[in-house]
Amino acid sequence: MKTTLLLVLVACAFATNTALFDRIEKSDLGKTLLNTIAIQMTTGEPLERIFQTLYDLEDRYIADQKEDDANNQAFQQVCDADLNALNQELANLEQRNTELQAVLDDLQPIRDQKIGQKKAKELQKAELQKVIDETTAKRQEQADDFEAQRQEYTFVSSVLAEARRLFTDNLQAPSFLQKGEERVHVTPQIMAQVASHMSQGAHKASTMKHVRTFGKAIKLLANLANRTQQFANQELTGRVIKLIDDLQNQLSQAFDLARKAEDDRVRAYEAYMSLLNKDMNKYNSSIANLTAEIQSLQDRIDATTSSQNDVLQRIQAKTQQRDDRRGECQEAAYDYQQRRSARDSDRQTVSDLIGILNSNMRDLKEYIALRVAAGDKDLE
């Protein structure tokens, strides 16, 4: 019974070691080491040398892992420093962007307010310009009307002057003289000429705006001259001449009054225009100042916007740089873990082989014998 149990245990142990050999052979290193050990054993290589080779290999793995650990730690520390620096730069840029946006948030409403004020001033200026234009147009109408009035008065004056000249140029010399009295007379033909001249002048004056009253008076004088031409004596001639002189004086006085009224209108216009121009100058000055302020604000906004765009571009570039660097660091960490895992697996393979050599040499020899018997070409 004890013998049977022992055989079972031995069979189980061999089966376990065979499974271990199969697992070792699944890795390139394990298969290479098994092949090397098998060849060395079949060629009579001292067991101590085989052990020393495995121990040296295990030590090399340990040394390589320590070096790799140190290099990885140093690299990751540099990564941490780089990422911290990049994150700080990004934080500074974000802070700068916030500051620039705050400046824009302050400047833009002020600019918009100034633009609104300027538009309001421009509307007020346009209304004032409308008043100026209307006032100027009205003054021009008054000036044109006065000029027309002057021409009409001049016409009436010329009609009266011509009538007076017809009398004075055609007075016949006195037939006799008396002390203190000069007796003169005109011919009926002259009186008829005067009446015709004045009648024509009266007709034209009746069509005018400002001298219609004088036109009627001239018409009366023309009728008087026409009725009295058959007599043409000194008394009637004197009366007609005196009426012409009186009408001429009245005309002169009326024109003086018209000129005074025109002068008053000119002075009132100039005084009013002076006030309007002062207001216009104020509007122009305000608009010019607002335009300058708006331009200054716009320049600052443009400069701030340009700076902000530059900061945003730098944020984008710096973010990409940080992400790239983080990717490099993560990739290096992954590669390190892969190397460590592979190295740990190789060390375990070496350690398993050392354990087998120390405790299961018989099984190893049997395993090699089975491979040789199976015609394994790697062991030839």
TrEMBL record:
Annotated organism of origin: Paramecium pentaurelia
Lineage: superkingdom: Eukaryota
Ranges in coiled-coil conformation: 76-152, 244-307
Signal peptide: 1-15
Protein name: Trichocyst matrix protein
Record keywords, A-Z: Coiled coil, Signal
